[in-house]
């Protein structure tokens, strides 16, 4: 069983795990030597070596990016076996078995728990990072325009396609009047408007007039690797929906709750591209 943590072992202590077998077997060797000469309390060095090595193993395990529960409890095992009076023998045989066990654990911790476990981003995390990434674009949008953008998206989501067309037109006109027309945002509104018109008339335009260009790529949430086989029309619409959601939720406090209630819709869009999004270089 393991637990996750981001604490990393300092570079200068990267070989500290080697002290676990060194201490435990050094104590055992001293014990055997003292017993050979019939020295009183000869078992104490071996006991001390095992106990100290166990605490050291627990420390090393705690400092790893990924934590091994068995190694973390090694100090407790040492105390129960060697310190608290019990029916276990604390002689050379027990010391040998115990030293071998914690040495194996130390090696296991070093080999299996030194590197952080790779964790893919959830699409909600990805969405939040995307919203932060397009901050400069969002900063040019005022609340009234943000409300129109949110209304365009929500009308489309509810199947009110004629309303969506009107809201897109209003938004585009307002942006043009204010000379605040980020290229990617204009493209997103035009793509949504064209798709809403198709749905309102129950038709499908084979070659849509409006698409995202290469200059819009930095503002898009779904940026697939070059040559990725994908329906360009569907990809453009999905990118338009995610972009309008991101702008709307950040710029229109009036619509924030309504948009949050439909966040799952946007997450599902991103989730359908999850494998491609997680690909390095995408």
Show the helix and strand layout.
Layout: E1 2-4, H1 19-36, H2 44-63, E2 66-68, H3 69-72, H4 74-83, H5 92-112, H6 123-133, H7 135-138, H8 143-157, H9 161-177, H10 183-200, H11 232-251, H12 256-261, H13 263-271, H14 274-277
Helix pairs in contact: 1-2, 1-5, 2-4, 2-5, 8-9, 8-11, 9-10, 10-11, 11-13
Give the distance, in angstroms, between the N- and C-terminal Cα atoms: 34 Å
Number of domains: 2
Q: How would the global form be characterised? A: rod-shaped
Contiguous helical run count:
14
Count every beta strand, where a strand is a DSSP E run of 2 or more residues. Answer: 2
Strand order of the largest sheet: 1-2
Instruction: Briefly note the structural class of the backbone.
Output: mainly alpha
Quote the average pLDDT.
87
List SSEs in N-to-C order: EHHEHHHHHHHHHHHH
Transmembrane segments: 16-35, 41-62, 69-86
Keywords: Membrane, Transmembrane, Transmembrane helix
What does this protein look like?
The protein is an all-alpha fold. The protein folds into two domains: 2-112; 123-277, no CATH class. The chain has 14 helices and two strands. It has a two-stranded antiparallel sheet with strand order 1-2. α1 packs antiparallel against α5 (92-112) and α9 (161-177) runs antiparallel to α10 (183-200). The longest helix has 21 residues, at 92-112. It is rod-shaped. Keywords: Membrane, Transmembrane, Transmembrane helix. The chain crosses the membrane at residues 16-35, 41-62, 69-86.
């Amino acid at each position: 069983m393991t637990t996750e943590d981001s604490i990393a072992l300092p570079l200068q202590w990267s070989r500290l795990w080697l002290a676990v077998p060194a201490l435990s077997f050094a104590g055992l060797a001293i014990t055997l030597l003292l017993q050979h000469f019939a020295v009183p309390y000869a078992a104490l060095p071996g006991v001390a070596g095992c106990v100290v090595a166990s605490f050291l193993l627990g420390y090393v395990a705690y400092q790893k990016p990924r934590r091994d529960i068995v190694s973390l409890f090694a100090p407790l095992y040492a105390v129960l076996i060697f310190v608290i009076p019990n029916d276990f023998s604390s002689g050379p045989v027990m010391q040998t078995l115990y030293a071998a066990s914690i040495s194996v654990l130390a090696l296991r911790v070093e080999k299996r728990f030194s590197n952080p476990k790779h964790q893919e981003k959830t699409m909600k995390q990805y969405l939040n990072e995307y919203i932060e990434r397009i901050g400069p674009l969002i900063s040019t949008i005022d609340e009234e325009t943000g409300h129109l953008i949110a209304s365009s998206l929500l009308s489309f989501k509810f199947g009110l396609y004629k309303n969506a067309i009107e809201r897109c037109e209003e938004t585009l006109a307002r942006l043009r009047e204010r000379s605040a027309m980020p290229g990617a945002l204009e493209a997103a509104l035009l793509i949504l408007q064209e798709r809403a018109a198709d749905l309102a008339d129950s038709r499908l335009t084979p070659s849509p007039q409006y698409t995202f260009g290469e200059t819009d790529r930095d503002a898009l949430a779904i940026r697939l690797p070059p040559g990725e086989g994908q329906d360009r029309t569907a990809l453009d619409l999905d990118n338009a929906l995610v972009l309008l959601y991101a702008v709307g939720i950040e710029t229109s406090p009036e619509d924030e709750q309504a948009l949050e209630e439909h966040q799952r819709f946007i997450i599902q869009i991103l989730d359908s591209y999850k494998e491609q999004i997680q690909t390095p270089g995408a």
